[in-house]
Amino acid sequence: MPGSPRKKAAIAGPKGKKTAPKLPVEQLDRLQAIITATLEDDKAEDIVVLDLAGRASFADRMIIATGLADRQIAAMATHLEEKLREAGFRKPLTEGASGTDWVLLDAGDIIVHLFKPEARTLYALEKMWSAELDEAGGA
Question: Which residues pair with 102 in a beta bridge?
Answer without folding.
Answer: 115
